[in-house]
Amino acid sequence: MLKNQTDSRNTYPSSRTGDDYGTRQAPDRNTRMDPRLRDLLSDRTSRYEPADVLYRAGDAPSTVYVIESGMVKLINYLPNGKARIVRIHSAGSWLGLNGLLGRSYGHSAIAIDEVRVSRIAINEIMNVKSTDPDLFCKLMEHWFYYLQDADLWISSFSTGIIRARVARLIDYLSRIENNLSAEEVRLLTCEEMAEILGATPESVSRVIAEFKREKLLYPGDQHDPRHFYRDIPQLNAISQC
């Protein structure tokens, strides 16, 4: 295990671009759940296996989901049929809030691993808007964090050389996996990482192999080939390129 490293779980590493990936506070979603919102979600849980679909792009909105455990990817399909992952969400994230505007779901939501969610009907949320405006404002905070993540996603994973983008993605994955320490990460598949970065799986695989050779990623749990320890200072330096 790597020792005495800077913890980047609460703050993004420094960046040349100043006001983008490098200086924003990482959303700490689990600390922002108002007890009244938790009451609305109690006893309404569903479980999904890897690759199960929570909802599809274009579906009429009926439900807002809050991830209790596991990770979910949001996917857009390009005109050529190729999938592009436009967001990854983990425990504490709210999905489907655009349904409050009466719009259809903009992306398909698919479980990456075993996922447990709480559910609340959109019409119940709209009732809260009239009966408890303060609570409704609390819920809108979650929408703000969602939009903040969307802005981060564009600036961090769509610009720069592939080596820097992979390093940023590794840091992002470490931070959103709440059950891991700062120096640990569970990687996605090369295909999934490529869909996030708009790169080829071969390019991502090559960079991951380089990081392993350079001892920037160390094997972790022998029973989980996706689990690694990471050299935080060195990967953060690469992410600035």
Order of helices and strands: HEEEEEEEEHHHEHHEEH
Tally of individual helices: 7
Strand order of the largest sheet: 1-8-3-6
Write down the overall geometry: globular
Give the oligomer, counting copies of the same chain as homo and different chains as hetero.
single chain
Radius of gyration, CA atoms, in whole angstroms: 18 Å
Give the fraction of residues assigned to helices. Answer: 25-40%
- Structure summary, number of beta strands: 11
How would a crystallographer describe the biggest sheet? 4 strands, antiparallel
Structural class: alpha+beta
Write down the overall mean pLDDT. Answer: 81
Percent of sequence in beta strands: 15-25%
Terminus-to-terminus distance: 26 Å
Query: Which spans of ≥5 residues are poorly predicted at pLDDT below 50?
Result: 1-31
Which descriptors would you attach to this protein?
disordered N terminus; single chain; about 240 residues; about 20% strand; four-stranded antiparallel sheet
